[in-house]
Design a protein that fits this description.
The complex is a heterodimer of chains A (319) and B (176). By secondary structure, chain A is mainly α. Chain A has 13 helices and 2 strands. Chain A has a two-stranded antiparallel sheet. In chain A, helix 6 runs antiparallel to helix 7. The longest helix of chain A has 29 residues. Chain A is globular, with a radius of gyration of 22 Å. Chain B has one domain. Chain B has a 4-stranded antiparallel sheet with strand order 2-1-3-8. A 4-stranded antiparallel sheet of chain B has the order 4-7-5-6, with helices on one face. In chain B, strand 5 and strand 6 form a beta hairpin. The termini of chain B are far apart. The chains are: A mainly alpha (319), B alpha+beta (176). At the A-B interface, helix 4, helix 5, helix 7, helix 10 and helix 13 of A face strand 2, helix 1 and helix 4 of B.
Chain lengths: 319, 176
């Protein structure tokens, strides 16, 4: 077969492209790439960027309520990092030809998705610890994989992100360890947070492999090297022994250890809930988008002031 | 006019005093001074950095050409310095690699390419030195030292692995 795959892309071009990826070469911005590779990457990278930006909201709400100065500085630094990660990722997406304005418009209009996990509320201080430990821990597994992906700018953004996320995960894990060894009130608070975040975190890895139509293509193109279920299983295997050592329970009565595979097998995940939240009906979807839009609107005068200053300076310069 | 699509500037970061400036990404800003400030906040929240450069995206000329005709103003008749950025292989970002004197970007690219005949490289960029802005060496401490005072931004600040080992062994954690 040598007829064009879709009018412009020939089988020869596609074969050469797949061969480059198989050799471990990075695809760079000016290189030829299939339209679908570009489209899938723009979708993935912009969603990832939006997740970093929206991800500031649940934690930002606790900065003023941090129990001491150390925790406050740590949380400020973490939230600032998330803004920076959004910037790294928007840059990576821009190298594929999408504009910053399009991406921001898509986020604010609700057309674009972001990680479902941020549509759950942060009810207590223990949630901040559990988010770092669970949510950032899950994100690191995913981003460590993406740091090896075939698209150079996205791989490099993830390398930088992973180096910084290690701090995010560890500050959360430290909090969870401390609370689990604390007073009975602290133990109850952290167990409650574990109970609420466990299942949504498992859903972060995405639908099961047999319901994830994009995965085989993404694996072939070297964008993903592990499937959703494989990453999810690694996360569960890492977390269950640690939670048990802390004296915390996993909110899954069907969780069993499988001797043959060495895996902790979870009970059934409620994918109906997942899709309900994806489609906008999660606990705080509307609040998150309202907060994001308000921040954009409230910041308009600052952007206008910067722009007016830039125009004034440009006018002053000798021609 | 849109207020979410400012001009883009490429950011180059120097990690050690005599090392090259490495491309670490790009930033949007209404002007080059603000681009430099934004670049520090986005790319230098941690050590180490001794110098930052920002270059307007439209000032960068590439070789091999990107394929689209670039509408540039007439080049001046007198030569001016162009900074050269080299992408040596597919695993490394563009990094600064000296300067050439040229009357146009096309000539600068030709000169930079001639200097490297026989060498292997993937892509060359040149940008007029006058188009760029770099951090002031006199401000180095004020600009980059604050990142040194924040050890809690590093994973190694948290002794979670030690604590986990103590708990796994059935003991209690050392609170120190």
């Amino acid at each position: 077969m040598s007829e064009p795959a879709n009018g412009r892309e020939t089988q020869d071009q596609l074969a050469a492209f797949v061969a480059r990826i198989a050799r471990g070469e990075k695809i760079e911005p000016g290189d030829w790439m299939p339209d679908d590779y570009r489209r899938q990457l723009i979708r993935m990278i912009s969603q990832h960027a939006h997740s970093e930006i929206v991800g500031m909201l649940p934690e930002g709400a606790w900065i003023t309520r941090a129990p001491n100065l150390r925790r406050k500085m740590v949380l400020l630094a973490k939230v600032q990092d998330e803004a920076g990660h959004g910037e790294y990722l928007y840059h990576a997406a821009e190298t594929l030809g999408v504009s910053r304005q399009e991406m921001i418009d898509d986020l604010l209009s609700g057309r674009a998705k972001y990680s479902n996990i941020f549509n759950y509320p942060t009810l207590t201080w223990a949630d901040i610890g559990v988010i770092g430990y669970f949510v950032d821990g899950a994100a690191i597994l995913n981003q460590t994989m993406l740091a090896r992906c075939s698209y150079g700018p996205y791989a490099r953004a993830n390398i930088r992100i992973c180096a910084e996320e290690s701090f995010h995960m560890k500050q959360g894990k430290e909090m969870v360890i401390r609370l689990s060894q604390g007073s009975s009130e602290q133990r109850a608070m952290v167990q409650d947070a574990v109970n609420r975040w466990w299942w949504p975190t498992l859903m972060m890895f995405g639908p099961p492999d047999d319901e994830s139509p994009n995965t085989p293509q993404l694996v072939r193109w070297g964008i993903k090297t592990r499937t959703n279920d494989e990453l999810r299983q690694t996360f569960i295997n890492n977390l269950v022994p640690e939670l048990r050592a802390m004296g915390l329970s996993v909110p899954d009565p069907d969780l069993t250890f499988d001797e043959a595979s060495g895996n902790w097998l979870p009970g059934a995940i409620d994918w109906d809930e997942f899709w309900r939240v994806v489609k906008g009906d999660g606990p705080v979807n509307r609040q998150r988008m309202a907060a994001r839009r308000a921040a954009h609107d409230d910041g308009r005068w600052v952007r206008q002031a910067f722009e007016a200053y830039a125009q004034k300076q440009a006018g002053r310069q000798p021609a | 006019m849109s207020d979410t699509q400012w001009p883009r500037f490429y950011v180059f970061k120097q990690d050690v005093p005599d090392g090259p400036h490495l491309n670490c990404g790009s930033i949007h800003a209404p002007d080059i001074e603000l681009a430099l400030l934004n670049a520090r906040d986005v790319f230098v929240r941690r050590p180490a950095c001794v110098s930052l450069w920002v270059v307007p995206a439209e000032a960068i000329h590439r070789n091999p050409p990107a394929g689209e005709a670039e509408d540039q103003p007439q080049p001046p008749d007198t030569a001016e310095p162009f900074v050269v950025f080299l992408k040596a292989d597919h695993r490394q970002p563009h990094q600064s690699a000296g300067e050439v004197e040229a009357v146009s970007a096309e000539q600068a690219l030709a000169l930079a390419e001639a200097e490297r005949s026989g060498e292997r490289w993937v892509e060359l960029w040149v940008a007029p030195a006058a188009s760029m802005l770099g951090s002031d060496p006199a401000d180095q401490a004020a600009w980059f030292a604050p990142a040194d005072d924040k050890p809690y931004r590093h994973g190694s600040f948290y002794h979670t692995e030690t604590a986990m080992r103590q708990l796994m062994a059935g003991g209690s954690i050392d609170e120190s």
